[in-house]
């Protein structure tokens, strides 16, 4: 149980880091379209300079990458069939909620229904994993 709880909390942390940083990354790129250079190479470097000298982009980017580090560390001890859907679905929910808090369009009733269905799916994944771990423990004794 303690190991499973730690895995679940790690996946929740990943989801918050990924999901909450997505709308902030989107906001941080505002103004990128105004960067204009004469050649493709100089355009690329000008865009990279714009992004990495812009703290409104750089901070969410670093938080997002921290989420990736936690995710890969968590994958070393968690089943892929559990970790991938839970992390991605919760990230999606965090992205929607953070976007809404920042004033973005939410998607209406369909988005709310989708969020509830996503939560139901995550709940089924968690229950299934708990049942599977309980079965393994009973077979081991």
UniProtKB/TrEMBL annotation:
Give the protein family: Belongs to the TMEM234 family.
Classification of source organism: Eukaryota, Metazoa, Chordata, Craniata, Vertebrata
What domain of life does the native source organism fall in? Eukaryota
- UniProt topology in membrane: Multi-pass membrane protein
Cellular component (GO) terms are: membrane
Question: Organism source for this protein?
Answer: Tetraodon nigroviridis
- The answer to whether keyword Amino-acid biosynthesis applies is no
Q: Which InterPro entries match?
A: EmrE-like, TMEM234
Q: What keywords sit in the KW lines?
A: Membrane, Signal, Transmembrane, Transmembrane helix
**Name of the protein described by the UniProt record:** Transmembrane protein 234
């Amino acid at each position: 149980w303690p190991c499973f709880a730690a895995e679940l909390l790690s996946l929740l942390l990943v989801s918050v880091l990924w999901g909450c940083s997505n709308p902030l990354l989107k906001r941080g790129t505002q103004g990128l379209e105004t960067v204009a250079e004469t050649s493709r190479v100089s355009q690329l470097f000008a865009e990279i300079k714009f992004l990495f000298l812009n703290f409104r982009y750089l901070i969410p980017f670093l938080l997002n990458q921290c989420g990736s580090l936690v995710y890969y560390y968590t994958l070393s001890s968690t089943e892929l069939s559990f970790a991938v859907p839970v992390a991605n679905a919760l990230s999606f929910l965090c992205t929607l909620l953070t976007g809404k808090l920042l004033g973005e369009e939410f998607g209406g009733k369909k988005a709310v229904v989708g969020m509830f269905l996503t939560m139901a799916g995550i709940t089924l994944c968690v229950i299934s994993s708990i049942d599977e771990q309980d079965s393994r423990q009973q077979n081991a004794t």
